[in-house]
Amino acid sequence: MEIAIIDYGSGNLRSAAKAFERAVGEAELTMDVVVTSDPDRVARADRVVLPGVGAFKTCKSGLLAVDGMADALEHAVIKNARPFFGICVGMQLMADHGIEHGTTDGFGWIAGDVVKLEPLDPRLKIPHMGWNELVFRGKHVLFEGLKSGQHVYFVHSYHMDVGDPELALATVDYGGDVTAIVGRDNMIGTQFHPEKSQETGLQLITNFLKWMP
Known about the structure:
Elements: E1 2-6, H1 13-26, E2 32-36, H2 39-44, E3 47-50, H3 56-65, H4 69-79, E4 84-87, H5 89-92, E5 97-98, E6 104-105, E7 112-116, E8 128-133, E9 135-136, E10 151-156, E11 158-162, E12 168-173, E13 177-184, E14 187-190, H6 198-210
Parallel strand pairs: 1-2, 1-3, 3-4, 4-14, 5-7
Antiparallel strand pairs: 5-6, 7-11, 8-10, 9-12, 12-13, 13-14
Helix pairs in contact: 1-6
């Protein structure tokens, strides 16, 4: 079984790969973690991970610049229903649109737009950087062993305004509710970085590797 972490010039790929490799090893799973920019390999993968760091528009452009990658993602995630994990901007790309540096189309997998953070407390700085407490909004098999109040690590200035509140599976409070996890069907996305979130992030990754949606 192969886990494809997509390399399209954005994201801390080595950090993500190490976290997934550690989760595979500690859970004693028979899986290979590969970092790849090969669309054919992504299309065939058993699980797909899309990291992303930076601006929505830049990440989308970088993805489209890899010939065939957008089609490979559609084939793997939508047609073949492979488990998908979007991280940070990789999660934001699941939305309909992002408005950073102009309006840019997302994948349209999760209804909603990625909008600028606007905390009600003016003392809170943008970007939102550091640890914050998760608040789970519903039950999901990927949350096994996790509970509200556990801390995860964020670095972002935009977040997803989800069209269907039921698809916002967890939030954090940063001068108001901020979307932290979205998901539906075979897809999950985190605004935070699980690879930097210590045991909480590792547990979520492990749950994703065992997930059979």
